Amino acid sequence: MSSKYWLKNGLINISQNVLTVLFGFSSFYMLIRSLTKEDYGTWVLFLSVVSIIEMARNGLTQDAVVKYLSSADEADKRKINTATFFMNVMTTIIIIIILLIIGPWLSASWHAPEINTMLHLYIVVFFFSGILNQLNCIEQANLNFTGIFYSNIARQGIFLAYVSFCFFTRAETNVLLLTYAQIFSISIAILIAIGYTYRKINIAKKIDWFWVKKIFHFGKYTFGVSLSSILAGSIDQMMLGSLLSKTASGSYNVAVRITNLTDIPTTAMAAILYPKSAIKISKEGEQSIKYLYERSVGVILALLLPVVILIYIFAEPVIHIIAGNRYEDSIPLLKITLLTCLLSPYGRQCGSILTSAGKTKFNFFLVVITTVLVIAFNFLFIKNFGVVGAAYGTLLATAISFAIAQFYLRKYYKINPLNPWIYAYKFYPEFYLTYIGRKKMQSCRSQLSGG
User: Fold this and answer.
1) Structure confidence by residue, pLDDT tens digits, 188-222
2) Whole-model pTM?
3) Where primarily located (predicted)?
4) b/e per residue, 10-31, with b = 16+ CB within 10 A?
5) Which residues contact 428 (CB under 8 A, 6 or more apart)?
6) Distances from the Cα of 102 to the Cα of 49, 106, 133, 143, 186, angstroms
7) pLDDT tens profile 75-96
8) Angle at the Cα of 382 (from 381 to 386), degrees rounded to 5?
9) Which of 447, 438, 289 is nearest to 355 (CA)?
């Protein structure tokens, strides 16, 4: 059962992340050629804002719902679902108020008047995405990922279809029309998610305030973690837009987009590790954390390292092929961001494994510290070094966060940051013997028996 879970859902999640990155990359490839550098910079800044708000809102309930639903009985599942729905509605209302307040200020700060209108339109997406996130949590808690796969792919694919239509037919598009395309795509994604989860949607008639409080007290830290984490990942682009220009933010985003191609195994492993580790820790205790963490990070590093090396060596032709000659200033940025992504598996899996163990408070303070460091270093380095300062500032902040996290894991769980590299080294012969060598042996046996 365990091996089947990891194999099946691992393949689903890796496939989803491959397609998500492929669709996102394809959209990026066409948009960067269809929009001016100023318009693309506006689109990047807009996506940074909505990603921060959406990730933070999901962080309030997502991890708590998966954790509690995965081990609850049927009566409690109904109460949890109702409590979560109530919390999603309330946070969405708060988000709408925040957007109405900050929209004009952001437009003025970035000299991009379209952003205010785009944020007003995106209110519809926030309402729909709250429902979609709850449906995905219900399915994930039941250790299923098929509906999540198809709904997310539909959301990405429909948007890609619109961008492709404009690119190949040379139809005029703009940032407002792109926002309308996102509204339509998430509407279809919700219908697909409902089709896969409606049998599991059990809702109580009354709000159980015990579960509202329990989810909130668990989620307040994961909310802070999600908010701080997404801030740490996008604040550099937002600060470039304010301190330099929209075009500087767009150039930096090109490097980040290419680096994100290497993030597929990290995201996939984190998605399947969290619900599984929540169950394993509840049964076996915290002694299982060491193995789960070191092994999962090792597998990610084994998959990540060859890709990072290749992109680093061929950074210049990669930029030219993907973004064209207008973005040559992204080449040095790409090399620096690639170094940052080697530390990403340690941080991402640390968050997943400790959240499973209920150590959300440490995650919260760690990510807050990281965010503060990213803001401070970016402000200092951008002022002194320009666009490349954002890459150096983020790398330095990530390295300090890595050191703090590994000190904590070493102290409380005896985790050695070098052990993942041992697992990474062993991954290659294990993979060969398990999947390639076995097939060769079976082929030889069939030939002998046939002879």
Assistant:
1) 998 988 888 877 777 777 888 888 888 888 777 77
2) 0.71
3) membrane
4) bebbbebbebbbebbbbbbbbb
5) 302
6) 10, 6, 24, 38, 24
7) 787 888 888 888 888 888 888 8
8) 115
9) 289
